[in-house]
Amino acid sequence: MSENRSLSGIIREHKTVFIILLVGLFLIELEIFALAVMKSGRKSWLQVLDEGGNVIHETSGSHLSEFNKYYFEKTFGPFENYQVKLETERIPFPFRAWFVAAVGLPIGVMLLFGFIVKAYSAIFTTSKLEPPAAENGSREAYETRLETVLDKVSRLNIFLIGFFILVGVLLYWIVPNALTFIGRTGIDTLIRFKWAFIATAAVLVGIVLWIIYLRYLLAKKSIETQTEIEKLRLQLESQTNQPLALPMEKTDESAPQVGWDGEPPVQP
C-alpha cells in the first residue's frame, strides 16, 4: 500500500459524505431541469388594448385575476371599455441553457471549492505536498472494476480537465449567442443606415471601375505605341531592303546592320 491514498480509498473512508454530495448534486440537477421545463411549453398572456390598438396592460395567463382587475380599473377605468387580446406562443425546450447550467454549474462550484482549498493549504499551512511515490511494478488489489477506474482517474489532473470542460461548456453557450447578436445587430444596422452603405458601396464600385478604365487606357496606349514602332520598322526595312535589328534582338555581329537613319553603323 502506498502512502498516498487513492481515490477509491478516500471514497470508502468518507462514504457518507460522498452519498450526501451525490444526493445534493442530483437535487440540483433536478431543479435545473424543472426550471428549464417551466420556461418551455405553451405560454399565454393577456393584453388589454385601448381604442388606438396600443397595449396598455399585459399579464401572464389566459384571464385577468380579480386583484389585477381591481388595480387596472383603479388606474385606467372600467375594464369593459377596453379590448382584450389573448396571445399564445409555444416555446421550445431550452436545451443549450439547460446543458450549460447542468454541466457548468456543478463543475464551476467544484473548481472554485478546490481552488479555495488549495489556496488555503498553500497560504496557511507549512507542510508541503509530498510527491507521488514511484511505481515499483506492484499494483494495489481492488475489489471491483469501478475502484480500478476511479484509481486511474485519480492519477489525472482533475483541475485541468474540469477547466477545459467548463471552458467548452461556456463556449457552447456564448458563441451561438454572440453570433446571433452580431447577426441581428448587423442586419438592424444595415436597415437603419442603408443609404450610407449604398453610397459607400457606390463610391467603392466607382473607384474600382475608374481603376479598370485607367488600366484599359494604359494598355491601349501601349498597344498603339508598339503598333507605330512596328510600322516604322517595316517602312525602314522596305527602304533599305535589309532587316532592322531591334535593341532586344540577338543578331550576328558579322552581318551588316542598318540604323534608324538608314545608314550602316560606323565600325570602331
Q: Can you characterise this structure?
A:
This protein has 268 residues and is mostly helical. It has a domain of 25 residues. Helices cover 62% and strands 9% of the residues. The protein contains seven helices and three strands, in the order ααββαβαααα. The longest helix is centred in the last third of the chain and has 47 residues. The protein is flat and about 115 Å long. The termini are far apart. About 5% of the residues have low confidence.
Which features would summarize this protein structure in a list?
268 residues, mainly alpha, 3-stranded antiparallel sheet, 7 helices, 3 strands, 62% helix
Task: Outline the secondary-structure elements.
Blueprint: H1 7-13, H2 15-39, E1 41-49, E2 55-60, H3 66-76, E3 83-91, H4 95-124, H5 145-154, H6 158-192, H7 194-240
Antiparallel strand pairs: 1-2, 1-3
Concise summary:
The protein is 62% helix and 9% strand. With 268 residues, it is mostly helical.
